[in-house]
Amino acid sequence: MRFLLLLLAIFSSATASTTKSSNWAPPWRSLASLDTNKKPEVSVPAALGLDAIIQRRGGEAASTTAATMAQETAGLPSAVKLLIGAGGIYGAFLYYGSLQEDVFRYEAEDGSQFKQAWFLQVLEALANVIIGFAGMQLTGATAGIPKMAFAISGASQVSAKACTSLALAIGLSFPVALLAKSGKMAPVMLGSLILGGAKYSVREYLQVAAIIGGTAIVSMGKKKGGGSASSALGVAYIVASLALDGVTAGFQKRLKAETAAAGVKPKPYDFMFWTNLYMCLTAAVISAGLGEVGSGLAFCAANPEIFSKIVKFAICSAVGQSFIFYTIANFDPLVLSTVTTTRKIFSVLLSIFLKGHSLSLTGWSGIALACSGILSEMAAKMGGKAKPH
Fold first, then answer.
1. Does residue 139 have a pLDDT over 80?
2. Confidence of residue 39 (pLDDT cuts 50, 70, 90)
3. What span, in angstroms and rounded, lies between the C-alpha atoms of 222 and 370?
4. Alpha-carbon distance 322 to 169, whole Å?
5. Phi, psi of 113 (to 5 degrees)
6. pLDDT for 43
């Protein structure tokens, strides 16, 4: 983490002299110049307690980590900060998705494949624990944090991630899984309609229908021989993952309420460390109970190539979360939502073009329909941002 901050400082000094004499306005400056004082309701990745962090973004509740990150790059123009934050998120998570697909498509010489999804979650969470702990040492740990709320949130989050990995492990294609996971709004809407009597616009219903319908079309539109076949069980795992995402969102609201009641304001790396610590412990207990620890280590020992991919996968997860915190510290939450939303679309397209997925015309129409639903949701958020408050 110190090395990462040092790189940012060097980059700041190198660009300071050139930016003073240049009036060039990059095309992304309009995104970087969004008003950071207004806080629209946006949907962002729930992992690692980011929803709770973003709701506290801005004003007096902003974290010490945000201030530290801002100071480290104070000399940089907003466009360059956006390039660093968005570039880091894109680079880390595009590679993360590619590695995740490689891990579950890997085939050993004897024809066996890596199936230890819970063991993979142990290693991923462990990498985030290490980075989170280092970040806490740099920014200072927050005392009096309610650990039980973190434990419940961490357990539900790692279960959701494990369900996605299990879907990939049994053969669900990566593009289908990622498109389906983009429909997180569906279980939230369903729960709110049933339990809360909420009302949604026709546009919101159409957005969800486009994502779900497009995903279904893609799963049915794959050409024969074009990679792993989607399965009903894989879809069931994705549905379970989406349901657990909804549960996680509810527990994160409870976590926010409990921390406020306790009079504490956890910093981003507090969230990263404690959430992932309980994610790691939950995954370790389950993977040990399923016998995945021994078999996973044995498979990695027999196939060093896949072990290197798993290590890179875990590192990308931790580095990507650090860039998310950097972006939260410097920009409006809408910027982060836009970056993460478009990243999903690029991940799907890269997987199709680079991993040998062969789609029929029907499959491509499904991709277009699902992506239109995702982009419509993003456009609605930006439209809401432009409305007067």
1. yes
2. very low
3. 15
4. 27
5. -130, 160
6. 39
